[in-house]
Amino acid sequence: MVGAPLDSPDLLYASGFRAVDPVVLLDRGGARTLVVAPMEYSRAVRECPRVNVVDTKLLGLSRRQRARLSSWALRLLRRERVACVHVAGAFPLGVARRLERAGVRVRIVDGALYPERLVKRAEELRAIAESQQAAVIAMRGAVRMIAASSIGQDGVLRFEGKPLTAEDVRRAIDRVLLEQDCVGRDLIVACGEHAADPHAVGEGPLVAGRPIVIDVFPQHRRHGYWGDLTRTVVRGRASPELRRMYQAVRAAQAAALAVLRPGVKGAAVHAAAARALESRGFRTGAEDGRGVGFIHGTGHGVGLAIHEGPTLGPSSDTRLRAGHVVTVEPGLYYPRLGGIRIEDTVVVTPQGWRILAPCEKRFELY
Amino acid sequence: MVGAPLDSPDLLYASGFRAVDPVVLLDRGGARTLVVAPMEYSRAVRECPRVNVVDTKLLGLSRRQRARLSSWALRLLRRERVACVHVAGAFPLGVARRLERAGVRVRIVDGALYPERLVKRAEELRAIAESQQAAVIAMRGAVRMIAASSIGQDGVLRFEGKPLTAEDVRRAIDRVLLEQDCVGRDLIVACGEHAADPHAVGEGPLVAGRPIVIDVFPQHRRHGYWGDLTRTVVRGRASPELRRMYQAVRAAQAAALAVLRPGVKGAAVHAAAARALESRGFRTGAEDGRGVGFIHGTGHGVGLAIHEGPTLGPSSDTRLRAGHVVTVEPGLYYPRLGGIRIEDTVVVTPQGWRILAPCEKRFELY
Lengths: 366, 366
Known about the structure:
Chain A is α+β, with helices and mostly antiparallel strands. Chain A has nine helices and 24 strands. In chain A, helix 6 (122-147) packs antiparallel against helix 7 and helix 8 (240-259) runs antiparallel to helix 9 (266-279).
């Protein structure tokens, strides 16, 4: 592996080294050697007790060689007499070509480098639950803020004498996450039109009577594990149509959870959610060339990456196992009405599943 | 290019799309086509007015093909009748192999994909200055906090009735950055032993009489540009030795800035800083197998990446150009004394350089 551990879940998993700068890691059946820059050496030794740490000076690289990661990798492989490496598809092409020119065979692993990474150990579950709990605390603050807002004559929410914007709520969430030693990136607080686009982060004034999607996914700064939580609220009363839509999404989440257990394929969980929405009359398809309805998968794995396996989508063949951590997040999106999504993160248990950090569900806030 | 724009400065630069999820971008002499997932389509069209946006459905990919980025790339290249692509060394090997199997030639660019990215336009300089100003505001708060602390009998700093820790100061910095719509990652507040390791983020109680290195590097959430600023302070009085060390580092920064101008090689700037330290008797070398003295380069470029070209290191051949933005950050590190580093971020101008956001330098706080 070659890269910055903080940007590569596999590297972070294998090394335990929370570094922003690039490293090289060789894993020979569990015996791991980590190459770092000389000035990272003492920190790496301290942070990675189960890994053999060397620096580029110890490897005998010249100053010029030390500037090229491919030289780090090549020297390490020579020293360890390795003639063939198995790498992930994301391995940098430049390093691969350099190794190949030097006679090293570079094979791409079929599937994940550490498939065991998806099955979480107890300490990993605690870490994800910690991030998820931070998301819950932040969500409660956000919902309280919206609930405490007043409704102006134009329908715009007002808080502490000013219009309440998506940015205000996002900043409040960020502040709470920080207190919990977590950090969020592009959290979603999306109202009305924006909420109809599941990836729009949202902006501008929030208005009464329209769904506000709040999607909070913090990464913990200490251990790097993520959490993921979404709630949708309406300030004031929702129309009967919106209420039906919300109930359908809740029912879809319940339907997905009802079938979620070890041995079940991700696709089956998604199908259960999709059926629940369809049977309540909520169609998925295209409208004016734009996807509407249930336009994303039901869930994804969460761990050192915010999006990892297993996925719960229409073509997810992977069978769930105890220890998998997945989001369950059905949603409905119609430009005219906005979007509604409800998401919890659960761990698959031998009997079924367990929510990692419970958070109440309120829709209408009045 | 293949990857998540927010994790790839080149992709962010070329697309303007601030997305966490992966995309594919083809640049044909400036005419850029961006491939995104269907649910990112409307957002991408909105955020990238100068780029031709398509989604994987528009490209006619099947559901299964849509799950593989190499299929996105391949279909785009077929549609555009491209037989040869030039990519960065970091391009994913898996995608490259797939393209090659399909008959596309994949060449690695010698050097940067967008060398022009290092020469900043006026709007980019404003963006970096904005992040740098956030760092200045946060730095002032951190220094004020340490200056306002009292010194306990054990030498540990106390603030609001409790020991003042590196974590406390870091959290205060994070909070200020957030108010400025910036976010920091692994900011450094390192005292004593920790400060002797230039990359240790620091932890535990801060103590009087020992240097505290504060390194703040925020990324702005709106535009993605970074800033980078370091100050070193001592609460109380510093020993004469530490004072000499601080003055040497200040002199080294001044010496580096004295030679910094267009046409000068990065190595020459580094040499000026190194000479200033050596001439004041501060040696660089090994002590108990550990590097001591001036053990890192004098600076690096800053932009959409926190570390980019040009570098100001011992083997930096690149000649500086007006519009380059670099840090100038000499430092000295001795386990017995701790570390001292002073860093400002400057833009190279036709006449020399300009500090992007000035910040006063105080060493002893008493």
